What we know:
Strand content: 15-25%
Shape: globular
Mean pLDDT: 91
Radius of gyration: 16 Å
Helix content: 25-40%
Number of strands: 10
Distance between the termini: 40 Å
Amino acid sequence: MKEWTGIILAGGLSSRMGTNKALLPLHGSIVLEHVAAAMAPAVSRVIIAAGPNAAAYDALGYTCIQDRYPERGPLAGLHAALEASETEWNLVCACDLPLIQPGFFTAMQRLAESDQKHPAMVPCLEGRVHPLVGIYHKRVLPSLEQCLVEDRLRVTRWLEEIGGRYVDADDLEQAGVQDAAGQLNNMNTMQEYQNLLGNRPPSM
């Protein structure tokens, strides 16, 4: 098993949530810690792409990286964290997926190890691409930086340019993931957060 780095994208402004969603309580912890715990068994190190939020995450004990291209969205966070990564292959996950499980990440690794010609691999489920969850090889860095320099910030367009692979529910199921779409339910509003918690109000 080659070494992998885990990257959590947590530099967003959470403007629709009204508070930093990575820090919302979840089953005695916080959402960011849940994502990190789900990712940890598959990686040798976890990096937080913290953007302007680094001070908020300092106490968690992870390596926090700030963007070299501020205010350019998730591509800037991915770029900064890939630059800081010391491994060729990297698992990436947005910070707002409280239902994601360890098996999702190990399944993505299995898919990558059986298909090493694609420099990126992300799920496409029920017609929706999830570009902020997946696998990225460090060799995508030059083209990623080019997008940031030119202010071309659409993640899916860049994925197509670099020849990224979309994996579907069947691919994931064969690799051992049940209910992939459910695990990738994200939350942008307080209502979505409460729904994902089973309609229990947050204990803030």
